[in-house]
Amino acid sequence: MNKPRQYELITDVVMHNKDNFYRLAYGYVLNPEDALDIVQDSIHKAIKSDTLHDETAVKSWFYKIVVHTALDFLRRRKRVAVASDAELEYRDSGQEDHYRDMDLEKALDELPPDYRSVVVLRYFEDLKIEEVAGVLGLNVNTVKTRLYKALKLLRIEMEEVEVHNEEAPEYGR
């Protein structure tokens, strides 16, 4: 495929799906600036790449680049994700508490990256199993197995959180 056509396709896909790509990157790094860097690096890699062979698969091809860029970032940094002040203020907006959501986020963060990837792509990015397999470069059955194990681990983790919350004493009564 010629470079101008590839550039046009990439631009179109990124412009129409930028929020999804950002959310995917953010799901890995939990930092707004790092997520933006990952998306930017992914765009740069996509433009330089010669691996796009199917014009109909640009979106899943770019998802794959974002996932690999995020995983590379995490491997390079090998750091604990610490919430920024802005993140803490956002979560403590004084409105409705979302403890269940925070518990789910924490449980997702504790999953091994291979399992987290399939869950995020399948349920948060709403990709089909076949698309997840394509993005991650895995066999469909491998994706199904990882998804099954990830959901089982999440269920166990969420049940432990629920039991812990029920056992916690209530203050102020």
UniProtKB/TrEMBL annotation:
User: Which parts of the sequence belong to the RNA polymerase sigma-70 region domain?
Assistant: 14-79
Q: Which UniProt keywords apply?
A: Sigma factor, Transcription, Transcription regulation
Q: Which Gene3D superfamilies match?
A: 1.10.1740.10, Winged helix-like DNA-binding domain superfamily/Winged helix DNA-binding domain
The keyword Transcription appears for this protein: yes
Q: Which domain of life is it from?
A: Bacteria
Q: Which residues form a coiled coil?
A: none
* Keyword Transcription regulation tagged: yes
The similarity annotation says: Belongs to the sigma-70 factor family. ECF subfamily.
Q: What is this protein called?
A: RNA polymerase sigma factor SigV
High-level lineage? Bacteria, Bacillati, Bacillota, Bacilli, Bacillales
